[in-house]
Amino acid sequence: MAAHQQYIDLFEQAESQLCKHSVATLNAPRREAIEALDKQGFGTTEEYKYTKLETLFAPDYGLNLNRLHIPVNPYEIFHCEVPNMSTLLYFVVNDLFYKEEQRKAHLPEGVVICGLCEAAETYPGLVEKYYGKLALVDKDPVNALNTAYAQDGLFIYVPRGVKVEKTLQLVNISRADVDLMSHRRMLIVLEEGAQLRMLACDHALDEKNFLTTQVTEVFIGENATFDFNELEETHTQNHRIANLYVEQEANSQVQLNEMTLHNGLTRNRTSVILKGEGAEVSMLGMAIADQKQQIDNHTFIDHAAPRCRSNELYKYVIDEESIGAFAGKVLVRKDSQHTDSQQTNKNLSLARQARMYTQPQLEIYADDVKCGHGASVGQLDETALFYLRTRGIPEREARLMLMFAFVGDVIKHIHLDALRDRIYHLVEKRFRGELRNCVGCSICK
Amino acid sequence: MLEIKDLHASINGKEILKGINLTVKPGEVHAIMGPNGSGKSTLSSVLVGNPTFEVTKGSATFYGKDLLALPPEQRSHEGLFLSFQYPVEIPGVSITNFMRTAVNEHRKYKNEAPLTASEFLKFMREKRKVVELDNKLANRSVNEGFSGGEKKRNEIFQMAMLEPRLSILDETDSGLDIDALRIVAEGVNKLKTPETSYIVITHYQRLLDYIKPDVIHVLYKGRIVKTAGPELALKLEEKGYDWIKEELGE
């Protein structure tokens, strides 16, 4: 039996249960989604060449269809604060949003941060207008699966002209006593001139197998500014398939940053449509893998309007038997003149058994554009290593310095100073082998 | 302090050094001259432990220790320094971070506590003055985008920071204009003490006008074929190497 079949069968049995614990807006597209999944299956496509969905989704995972709250208070047990960074802190445990009422008070006028179901009921029309409009179910089997099964999620709304000064920190925690599958969903809407900076970090508390799908849809209005930093710091039994879709209106500025610090298997799709003239996106990626970890990043930038800029920089450090994959597509449409686009993927391979696959892809239909791309896979520079050693720096330290410098090139672009410092610190720990698990929580210590 | 006996070294099976004998005592300045391809840079590379060269025969001891048995970092800790002919660019590693790590590794080796951030910056400020190294340069990545002169100045700055007992200056004068040469040479002279020694590898007399050598050696085809006082450099400047080759019967 093909792996997707069990999700079709389960859906038939559990549809009413799924719908009962959700709301109309989320229930409406389920049927269409499951049909789209049935049609596509998990078969190998070019898109999922290095992440075999068929294998990934075959095992039996538990699903929390009845929305039972796990008896933890993340606010008490979890400390993932970034030193010197004042944040608006929220938690999602598996796919359940935890909210603390008093925190609402800190939000500027009109800003909404709440569960997706709550939002759909409180602000009718708003969620409906955006939900499922970018993450199309017929284009990607994971979108289909997620849409069929997601029962709640997180909704973030920043109205016109409002700037959220504090960084929003979202802590995603995988927590279960059995192997668990979760379907996370996020919908983020920034209206014209709005501003939001965000950090989302993934952690896994229990030594169970976790398989999480995450679908995020982001709508950025004219002149709005949005920073989205994602940091994964889970364990080797954690599997993450995350699809992020961003649509940008004119002159908006977005920075997307995907950092995989520790994981099992991760597949991130980042898709950006530069829809309005003069929109800018900067996409950063840092991936560090060893053991048998696997990190697969797929990016797609659609230059659909003139005078937009995109800048992409992804760097991988792969060691031992890990696998890294990067596929980056840039599409410049016919009328998107004066596009300025640069894509760079550099990879450091530290072991013979480690594998790196890189695939830049440019499709340009406009004739007055500036587009560049570059990809490389290399080893540590032996002459630099020797130079450092002649100054008294032991080989191990010298190696670390060079590895650190390599990814530092990505980290330095992060806008949030405190986060940048924190990432430097975590990366150093990671390279020193001191980061085998998340560092923040009291449970796994 | 340094005693090299019958040193042979090769690269990819090709013998470059064919029996070097050299003794350097504390406070001495030795100049090594010789035509291109005679093995001057190989000698300096072998002494600091460049893994691309293989020592096939002979010995080198430094203050009684078997130098060739030590990894490059320990040779540095023992007080050996090479100013590279072609300093390496290391993007993403700032000079400050680089030197702080290096200095503290040296201190660790001597069982001294690491310098605090402010102690280190003060120390670095003093040493920067010696070679007139701009603070802006110090905050940049090691040698990245530096001019030839800036790279060489950075080498001498590192020498000042690490306070070696024996420094090898491998064509530190190449690629320098007159002013840069003066700054670098004056830097070296300021750092000189009765205990520190130098091996100066150069093609030209002009550096030796500033850094006065006690002995001049001519390296040719992997051997030291002539050793004499400072007047030898002048003669080489004037006459070239042909007369030496003739003396050797070539």
Question: How would you sum up this structure in a few lines?
Answer:
Chain A has helices at residues 5-20, 24-27, 30-40, 53-57, 74-77, 116-122, 126-130, 141-149, 382-390, 395-411, 417-431; strands at 62-63, 87-93, 96-98, 112-115, 154-158, 167-174, 180-190, 195-204, 210-220, 225-233, 238-248, 253-262, 265-274, 280-289, 294-303, 309-318, 323-332, 340-349, 355-364, 370-378. Chain A is α/β, with parallel strands linked by helices and 445 residues long. The longest helix of chain A has 17 residues, at 395-411.
Any descriptors?
heterodimer; A: 445 residues; alpha/beta; 23% helix; disordered C terminus; B: 250 residues; globular
Task: Explain how this protein is built.
The complex is a heterodimer of chains A (445) and B (250). Chain A is built from eleven helices and 20 strands. By secondary structure, chain A is α/β, with parallel strands linked by helices. In chain A, the strands form two sheets. In chain A, strands 1, 4, 5, 7, 9, 11, 13, 15, 17 and 19 form a ten-stranded mixed beta sheet that branches. A ten-stranded mixed beta sheet of chain A has the order 3-2-6-8-10-12-14-16-18-20, with helices on one face. In chain A, α9 crosses α10. Chain A is globular, with a radius of gyration of 21 Å. The C terminus of chain A is likely disordered. Helices cover 39% and strands 28% of the residues of chain B. Chain B has ten helices and twelve strands. The radius of gyration of chain B is 18 Å and the shape is globular. Chain B starts with a strand and ends with a helix. The interface between A and B is medium-sized, with 22 and 31 residues.
